[in-house]
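>> received
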Amino acid sequence: MGQSESRKEDGTYIATFFLTYLFLIPIWPIRGYVKSRRDNAYVSIVPLGMMAFLYSMVVRTAFFVGLPLMIVTTTALVIANTETHNNVYILNASTEPIYVTVGGVEGWIKPGTARVTSLASGIYAANATREDGSVADKLELNVGGDSDATIVWNIAGVGAVVEGKRFYGVHPEHIERPTTKLHCDRVIRAENVDLVFQPLPQTTDGATVIRFLALDHDPAACEKTRHASRDAHMKIRVDQWSRDDAN
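>> returned
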């Protein structure tokens, strides 16, 4: 491609071999050559001319710099698109509205309600304040791991959250026990949950199991559980002391 240093005496000129795209767009200069106009024959091979050499340097720089940059950018985009996200439910089980900020999400949450957002893996500063400006809760919320996990920020640990299974069309002998579990922590993680703080259906098509998280209607459920645990612990201690005294 191209012509330079044309000689009228012998009808020769210098051209350049290019690697092309679709035989039209020159991409990479390979070498220079002398060609004759008289019989259209190749006479000899010569070094690349200055313009072709500069062109090759530009192409090489673009290739060796641009290709790695393109690979890094593409990899980053793929990682960003496949990054694990989890549904995070912010539960206000108190009797007053709470203002929350976490992971770019902020706003008021009404009493006895929850707000859901999707957060990528990471550690987020979670803050909850009351209407008078006092702090209701403050923690570092760790989001990550299994994408099937549902995370509940139970503000100040006020809510009693029930994790359970509802069986539809299943014979009683095949129902797993126990079917419910009570959570009283500030941060709750549950796996493979189907419904979160939503009404359960009355019926379903065929036999199935629905895993759910629900707010216990008894606001003192956690306190009762704590008292029961303390009573059971004290009974174990009393029994141990009785055996020690007997010995």
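>> The chain has two helices and 16 strands.
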